[in-house]
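Section 5: illustrative case.
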């Protein structure tokens, strides 16, 4: 289905790529990038980033990507490498589920005749296995949890706190648990009234909130893919589906790395500065990518999938913290040194903690460098904010 090829294309790391099941056993970890328009042109300054890169006005912000073992039906019960996959899933904020849109890979990762397999079943079973896994973590102690919540004591344990003990290490917050309960219309103070179906529905909602899934419909350049992608877009209307051609992206990135073409991840085209350096075979491959991918789909989808996972699924925004509000720089003179991915609803104090724990603990106020106005700890961050954080330690 191209999972490891997608990872290679997104990170340019060389991991095992083969056309047989369970190529990935141990998780591969690398840096992908969020691509956004940098604010330096708007501010009229020349930047020199430290934690990211800026190329021709495009800021590339590194993010952590993990390529984990694939799943088969029954994974939540330990079939295949299910336990390994689910354990590796614990720290994920969002999931990019790479499917074979050409219908040439079955649910166990085996190659089949192109167009013979419907990937909609894969989409459903992956979600189901993750939900069953979370439910299995709760099931064993569910009676104990309900008794603790409904104990009748002066200070009964609240359900989110009680569940956090079972879901520790999964990057799931009490707020997410509470949101899932309310989303399903369940009684948060009387969990003993929940049926098995209610508990399953709660786990579904919890996964949707805490580990949302985006579909990367890979091999979109093959003839059978477009019809499948159109059908999946109707069947899974509430899911973000990105048509992808991971092999094409990998080819373009390697050609760019070799200096054969000018191309940035996510571009809709590429240029060839010196055609004399490109062999006939390379030119043919580049022409195929242009004709079957870029001219049809506008881009390869790999960069868009990474971007959308952070900026749409996780409601990410980009904020630039600085130390000198007049020069937009840090104390070393680096202009717009950091681009931080925050989330809608997060505050100036949250940004301070992201920069450094001490800065968050001693936060006084922030300065919006565009307006020169002070904003308080509860100021909700906006995309492309440029802020100076002022703390009592720094002021003193």
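Designed sequence:
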């Amino acid at each position: 289905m191209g999972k490891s090829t997608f990872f290679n294309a997104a990170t340019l790391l060389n991991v095992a790529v083969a056309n047989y099941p369970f190529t990935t056993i141990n998780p591969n970890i690398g840096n992908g990038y969020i691509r956004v328009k940098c604010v330096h042109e708007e501010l009229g300054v020349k930047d020199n980033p430290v934690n990211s890169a800026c190329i021709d006005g495009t800021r590339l912000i590194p993010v952590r990507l993990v390529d984990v073992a694939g799943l088969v039906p029954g994974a939540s019960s330990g079939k295949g490498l299910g336990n390994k996959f689910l354990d590796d899933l614990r720290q994920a904020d969002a999931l990019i589920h790479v499917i074979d849109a050409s219908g040439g890979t079955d649910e166990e990762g085996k190659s089949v005749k192109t167009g013979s397999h419907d990937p909609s079943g894969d989409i459903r079973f992956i979600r189901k296995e993750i939900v069953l896994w979370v439910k299995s973590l709760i099931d064993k102690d569910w009676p104990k949890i309900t008794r603790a919540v409904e104990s009748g004591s002066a200070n009964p344990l609240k359900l989110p706190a009680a569940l956090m003990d079972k879901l520790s290490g999964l990057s799931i917050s009490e707020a997410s648990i509470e949101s899932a309960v309310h989303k399903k219309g369940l009684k948060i103070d009387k969990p003993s009234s929940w049926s098995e179906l209610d508990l399953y529905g709660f786990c579904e909602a919890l996964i949707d909130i805490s580990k949302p899934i985006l579909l990367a419909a890979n091999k979109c350049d093959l003839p059978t893919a477009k019809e499948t992608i159109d059908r999946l877009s109707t069947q899974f209307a509430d899911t973000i589906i990105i048509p992808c051609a991971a092999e094409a992206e990998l080819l373009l990135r390697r050609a760019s790395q070799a200096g054969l073409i000018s191309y940035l991840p996510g571009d809709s085209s590429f240029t060839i500065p010196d055609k004399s350096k490109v062999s006939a075979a390379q030119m043919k491959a580049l022409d195929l990518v242009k004709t079957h991918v870029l001219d049809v789909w506008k881009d390869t989808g790999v960069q868009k999938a990474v971007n959308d996972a952070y900026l749409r699924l996780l409601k990410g925004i980009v904020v630039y913290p600085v130390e000198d509000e007049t020069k937009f720089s840090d104390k070393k003179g680096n202009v717009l040194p950091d681009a931080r991915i925050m989330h809608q609803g997060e505050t100036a104090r949250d940004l301070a903690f992201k920069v450094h724990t001490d800065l968050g603990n001693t936060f006084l106020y922030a300065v919006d460098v565009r307006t020169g106005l002070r904003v308080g700890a509860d100021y909700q961050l906006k995309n492309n904010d440029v802020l100076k954080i002022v703390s009592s330690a720094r002021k003193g």
